[in-house]
């Protein structure tokens, strides 16, 4: 037989898990030092520049 599930408790548990997941994402995004943020921003800029430099122009 199947177990009986309390839907109110299920919804609360699901909301808690979503909130915990969101908090973990925020800790990753905002829990870095200034130098770590600067390094990741410069790496991102360098990667985008590298991609743009290697594009093939189809106009010519």
Automatic annotation (TrEMBL):
Region described as Disordered: spans on this chain: 1-60
Name of the protein in its database record: DUF4169 family protein
InterPro entries noted in UniProt: DUF4169
Lineage: Bacteria, Pseudomonadati, Pseudomonadota, Alphaproteobacteria, Rhodospirillales
Ranges of Basic and acidic residues composition bias in the record: 10-60
Domain of life where this protein originates: Bacteria
One Pfam family named in its UniProt record: DUF4169
Organism: Kiloniella antarctica
């Amino acid at each position: 037989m199947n177990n009986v599930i309390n839907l109110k408790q299920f919804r609360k548990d699901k909301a808690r898990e979503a909130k915990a997941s969101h908090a973990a994402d925020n800790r990753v995004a905002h829990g870095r030092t200034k130098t770590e943020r600067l390094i990741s921003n410069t790496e991102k800029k360098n990667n985008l520049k590298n991609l743009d430099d290697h594009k093939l122009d189809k106009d010519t």
